Amino acid sequence: MDNQELKRYALKLRRGILRATHAAASGHPGGSLSATEVFTLLYFEELHVDPKNPEDPKRDRFVLSKGHCAPGLYAALAARGFFPEEDLLTLRHIGSYLQGHPDMKHIPGVDMSSGSLGQGISAAVGMALAAKIYGESYRTYALLGDGEIEEGEVWEAAMLAGFRKLDNLVVIVDNNNLQIDGPIDEVNSPYPIDKKFEAFNFHVINVEDGNDFDQLRAAFAEARNTKGCPTAIVMKTVKGKGISFMENQVGWHGKGPNDEELAKALAELDKAEEML
């Protein structure tokens, strides 16, 4: 798929994120928007998945370890055809299967229920280890937040992944430098992130612009060609990417746009699409 088409899908995902969090009057748009390009590339190019057979045992696995950014995952799954796009507007509503965190029991395409930070990567390591034990060829991907990696459980999982040489595992860190309470280097700095993963025997790929498809594609290609150890992709991104008044604003970590803000944001996306 060429970059122009991927950019159009990314705009679709951003619209889905905004409309869903607006309809819910809550949710987490900032971190969903920073990861939009990686969601897009994963579901439209990298992952071997089939919306018509979401439980295929041969499929690649994806775990959204930063589970609060479910609006981004839901928008990607809907755009890929796992469920109707109009269902995004039921986000967090009573009775909806699209709740604030991913639920593997009720949402097609979700491989792991997540939300308690740090637990997703542990599940992903288990999936990758199972593939090794049973001789399966599927790959496992996990997306973590940079604030999330302040959790100790992340490093317990990383220790096992490195020790077991899980080269079928790709850990992606969304390094947008903001968490709920402010900049990560002011709350509880995990820097240098790359050196920490290297210490746990990961091959580390630093991506200077995690909102750039070419850089992400090259990183995933390098990860596929890495043998004998797991890969960590540490990608610098912009929280709230694509919406001018949301970019790099910690206040958009966990609130939905109101009517006026939604209209302004959608207008910006329409203008961006016109320029493609």
Automatic annotation (TrEMBL):
Residues 19-265 form the Transketolase N-terminal domain. The keyword Lipid metabolism does not apply. SUPFAM superfamilies: Thiamin diphosphate-binding fold (THDP-binding). Keywords: Thiamine pyrophosphate. Its cofactor is thiamine diphosphate. Belongs to the transketolase family. CDD domains: TPP_TK. It comes from Stomatobaculum longum. PANTHER family: TRANSKETOLASE N-TERMINAL SECTION-RELATED. It comes from the Bacteria. Gene3D superfamilies: 3.40.50.970. The keyword Isomerase does not apply. This is Transketolase N-terminal domain-containing protein.
